[in-house]
Amino acid sequence: MSTSTTLEAPNSGTWDGGNEPMKASYGKLMMWFFLLSDAFTFGAFLIVYGLARHAHMPYTGEPEAFTFSTEWWPIPEKVFNAFPGFHGVDLPLAFVALMTMILILSSVTMVLAVEAGHRMDKNDVQKWLLWTILFGATFLGCQAWEWAHFITGTDEGMLLADGTRVFGANLTVNQYGPPLFADLFFFITGFHGTHVFTGWILLLIAFISTVNGVYQKRGHYEMVEKIGLYWHFVDLVWVFVFTFFYLI
Amino acid sequence: MSSTDISINRDVHHAHEEHDHHHDQNFFEKYVFSLDHKVIAKQFLFMGIFWAFVGGFLSVLFRLQLGWPEATFSFLEPILGGWVENGKLNPEFYLALVTMHGTIMVFFVLTAGLSGTFSNFLIPLQVGARDMASGFMNMLSFWIFFISSVIMFFSLFLETGPAAGGWTVYPPLSALPEAIQGSGDGMTMWLISMALFIVSQLLGGVNYISTVINLRTKGMSMTKLPLTIWAFLLTAILGLLAFPVLFSAALLLIFDRSFGTSFFLSDIYIAGQALTNTGGSAILFQHLFWFLGHPEVYIVIMPAMGLVSEVIATNSRKPIFGYRAMIGSLFGISVLSFVVWAHHMFVTGMNPFLGSVFMFLTLIIAVPSAVKVFNWLATLWRGNIRFTAAMMFAIGFVSLFISGGLTGIILGNSALDIQLHDTYFVVAHFHLVMGAAAFFGMFCGVYHWFPKMFGRMMDEKLGFVHFWFTFISVYLVFMPMHYIGIAGFPRRYYNWTGFEAFNIFTDMNTFISIAAILGFTAQFIFLFNFIYSIFRGRRATENPWHSNTLEWTTPVLPGHGNWPGEIPTVYRWPYDYSKPGSAEDYIPQTVPFSQTQSSNLPNEKDFE
After folding, report:
1. Among all residues of chain A, which has the CA nearest to that of B597?
2. Which residues cross the membrane (chain A) (predicted)?
3. pLDDT tens across B305-336, in order?
4. B375: which of A164, B322, B568, B602 fits an S-S bond (Cβ 3.0–4.6 Å)?
């Protein structure tokens, strides 16, 4: 028996070990699993949003006659209707639509950067990463303006029962409706913004490394790909946030 | 014959070993900020043992209060200081004790201590990998856990005490710092510590999953994995999906506490003054919490199930009964664990119809659990049993899991729960089924894998003494608790002598307390055995239990990279014990079928 050779090959199917069954390196797998778990975090927040909204009265009157009141949940179009440089003009959801476009555009440039990485084209990776960084920064800038406007409030504000007026919103007072509307707006867009900002920092690091030729020397641009996964995920989350907060 | 072949190969490898160890690591690289999964596993184990003694000590303190409510505890003043007033335990401190006992045991011992130790130690060794997928993230996972531990430990010494709103930290009690002392700084530190803990769990979890998927050695298909690995894999997936929801809940709670939001708060009056918070829902927190909280009990128990399956098969010298059914039932438990959370909330005013849906789903969990119990018993049946200390704890685990599981069927019933909710019946149930049982799984793992961890054997006789004291005292503590629970005795009460109906339970409570102190004291036998054996234990051989899995093909003390030479290749499943026709009663996974022609089954002839 001991003379028989031990060189016989074990099974070598997809899941038989000794390979990468999902055709992905462990780093990419880890990113996917992290994103899966992060999706549950955001999922929990959006469920909180849904339940809070469900627990409040909707506005039932004519849309033209809508006024801000703590009695009912506001109509998003009436809250988010400002645009920088167009003071007093009613442009429902125009600014947030622009923000969304910019973020989706950044996803497109991210795809191009990853694709350039597959071709090992350092210049193209640099170019498209830079565009992504630019669009990402623009989105964050837009969000800062959006927050600033939300905090400052409108000219009219909200008339309270005791005759005083409330302008703008913070975590305890809210001119647009019930306090929870502002709480959830700040919390969820803030949490999303933190994610975008983190991704933006990662992109900046990837850009510097690309310029320094780190990935070229390493022989692959997988790091760009992993950050790309994260960036797309953050964009996808924004689509949900946009849908829940602004459209529905 | 096959075993002699292996030892010849190993001698060759020893020659290589000398070359592999030229890279000298300094003390910090080797023992503190180590990237080696085996060292990180030991770090988790030491932390887990430390926390287990802290948590156990806290439980002894509140058992003293419950057992002897009229006694004076002046002798505790040197340890507890201001928390003992005129010989009486401060009632708010009592609440802090039960809160911290729960938090420490559930999260720091049975989640981090159990998964952290054995997932880290066994996954690379049993799948045949040099290390975890990312050693750096693995190290980070431990050190974030360490920081989280330091914060939680420090909160014990605050003047206002640690968190005291129960381990479930329900708002509004936990959300309003002015509610009780424990909702002040102690609660803030609890939340920060838990947020870090979750980060540590996620870092660990993605690592475990990626390692199992990508780093299995040649031939190690998913159905050749030891059941331990399946349990760790599914545990990590549960953690990955459940913990982020607790993270969300904790973040929202932090905002409610510190920044004036109203997510969980509405219509609250303190001392006649209305708070400004409106619109939130305290029940919402319970939903978020238990969406983690319920999978969490399976995060605690499933690694123990995996360890027990492996130890029972090895020490019964029989293949595990129903290997695929074992995997299937783990799957079933994992999926079901996410759709039963509201059975913790039957009495929150939930719609009774919804209650019956959750009751139905809850009771279905009895099916995969029963499959597992049946398979363990069938594995033991007519086995050639070796009663090692690890085996005793494994059998003890099965016993406790049955005893505790039966009351689960009662508690899962939404109508019966109205009477039993928040009584000592619940306390008895979950302490048996997930508390003591998971501890037994952990002990079973430590006794069994100690030789691979430290290269020495633990003392078997002390192990037996430890087992019997622990086993008996666990039953003596928790069996009587069922009775006072059925009588309606509520948990978390500092003092019950004011209630005429409960005075008759004084003797029983004293009895429980004595048994609890006995059980806690018995753990020092383990501690002594553990520390003594690290330095003075009998030297272990490479495969002291004659086990089949890959970790026993490594040298007595595996170095960095685990195998000195090539990583072994796997040809067979890990449960070829007492195979008819084989000379030895075990055939390691690394032995090809061509070497075991006498014992091959007809369908295995093709692999020769």
Report:
1. A1
2. 29-52, 93-116, 128-148, 184-208, 229-247
3. 999 999 999 999 999 999 999 999 999 999 99
4. B322
